[in-house]
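User: I'm designing a mutation panel for VWA domain-containing protein and want to avoid disrupting the core. Could you give me a predicted structure to guide residue selection? Please restate the sequence first so the numbering is unambiguous.

Assistant: Good idea. Sequence first, for numbering, then the predicted structure tokens:
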Amino acid sequence: MCFARPGYLILLWALVPLSALVFYGVRRKMSLWKKIDATGGISGILPAVSFRKLVLRRLMLLLSAALMIVSLAGPQLCSGQKPVRQKGIDVVFMLDISNSMLARDTAPDRLTRARSELLQISRSLGEGRQALLLFAGTPVVQCPLTSDDEDFEVLLDMATPDLITTQGTDYRRAFESALRLADSGERASGNETVLVLCSDGEDHGYDLGDIAATMNKRGVHLHVIGVGGVQPVPIPMPGGPKRDAQGRVVLTSFRPDLLAGLIKTVDGQLYYSRPEAPVHDEVAANIAAEAAAARWIMAPGQRVPVHGEMIFVALLLFVSGSMMTDVRRPARQNA
């Protein structure tokens, strides 16, 4: 059996605590019944409770819920295999929105320069989906994987440092979040994954060796766009230049060393964006080449949907379980 929307299967985990709660209730109900019956002979007044019916009724309702969840995932009976060429590509744009991206050593500032590059790249993409991950000290998914270009552009235009309260720049957490986002897309569509990072190179996180190993293992393509100048400049803030705890003006500059080292590790590509030399056309062309070279994969030759049958069985179990009582049927007496 295979599934058209396997992401829904994660909802089955919700049945684990629910099952524990249900069977705790069964045990408690039987315990209370025995205590009451032992003290007052209540069995002659109220009908006895059947432990077997208690359990069976709740099993039917839980199984009904499980089948409904599985039906959401689009279950299919799959047989045979055939080679299928992957279509499209999933691009996760990673945009640094730390305060240093407000520096004006590139016109009009680093963040605007970065947004412009990502916007032009997104407009050049062909078939596939795109997502936007913003990061500073923590990452946030601004736009999940989508093929709606208009929504993506609106959310990209809204990207500012105000969206993340934890400042600094932590590439590790950003890449971990981007890979999780890409992983969900791969399971759902089977598309190739490309990460496009745009940053000034300042990092306050940790070593990225294991992140690079993960990207290599999964065959994730990486393109890094650097923005900013090499000469230190202040960071403009609403109340004046940003200052440290001692009152000294904080200076920032483009630091390509970390980004260049990461690119060498994952066999990616590094670009340096300047107002007079934008790189969006080059990046888009390289992504298109990667999409054209998408590998062939083996997919089921025949798929027969069975979600309708599962829904029918789930409803049957639900109705049967709802109509069943916990009362034990009295034994027949011989005349």
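For picking mutation sites, this is relevant: The radius of gyration is 29 Å. DSSP finds nine helices and 13 strands in the chain.
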